[in-house]
What we know:
Layout: E1 2-5, E2 13-16, E3 22-26, H1 45-51, E4 65-68, H2 105-133, E5 136-144, E6 164-167, H3 176-186, E7 190-191, E8 194-195, E9 198-200, H4 208-216, E10 221-222, E11 225-229, H5 244-260, H6 263-266
Parallel strand pairs: 3-4, 3-5, 5-10, 5-11, 6-9
Antiparallel strand pairs: 1-2, 2-4, 6-11, 7-8
Amino acid sequence: xxxxxxxxxxxxxxxxxxxxxxxxxxxxxxxxxxxxxxxxxxxxxxxxxxxxxxxxxxxxxxxxxxxxxxxxxxxxxxxxxxxxxxxxxxxxxxxxxxxxxxxxxxxxxxxxxxxxxxxxxxxxxxxxxxxxxxxxxxxxxxxxxxxxxxxxxxxxxxxxxxxxxxxxxxxxxxxxxxxxxxxxxxxxxxxxxxxxxxxxxxxxxxxxxxxxxxxxxxxxxxxxxxxxxxxxxxxxxxxxxxxxxxxxxxxxxxxxxxxxxxxxxxxxxxxxxxxxxxx
Length: 279
């Protein structure tokens, strides 16, 4: 196992157990903000934590190439285009008043340069997988709020906000069987005694990482983007529901590993072209 970080600032981290066509990323798991932005930042840590994706990096553990950042999306959002990656006004970040005084353009540009650095490192990892194996499956893990408007909302009363949402928009048709199999693992799961709700492109179809990597290698890269609603935690305090969350992670990842073991069957025109061991 080898851990790496992008240069020069180390914003993107990854662990590579072995070369693999399967990569997994949690682009919003981080909480750190660099020191030079903090003096003018008025949003509390609790406010920031509510819109970050804590715990999603735990979904990366079974996968041979795991990618994450320790940097908060409130410093720079790696899942947005460069021009909108540094939040500035409330309309760019869920109505949150982030800064008392807007950082200078120089500070914002440093954030955007870190975005460039992270994207270059991610591009290199995806390109290497495509070069070696002929294809790449980039699993993209996120979470989202369901109690932003109503702190007492009950998740099972809101099917329009499914517990699991798989973003598959724009995927090449050859990946349909794989995406269906990943969805199929989620449907039988339960959360605290209730059957979970599952959607495909119901609330999210896939963010910028999803769209960009699929467009960079049409028909060679697929980015299944899993959004998990924050039933597994108190989204306002960041406290996880344990041991239930750990059990849910194990069920999801074990199921997806079993699906990925079937890649030669699910991607017969890609996964049989070159010999490989994905895990």
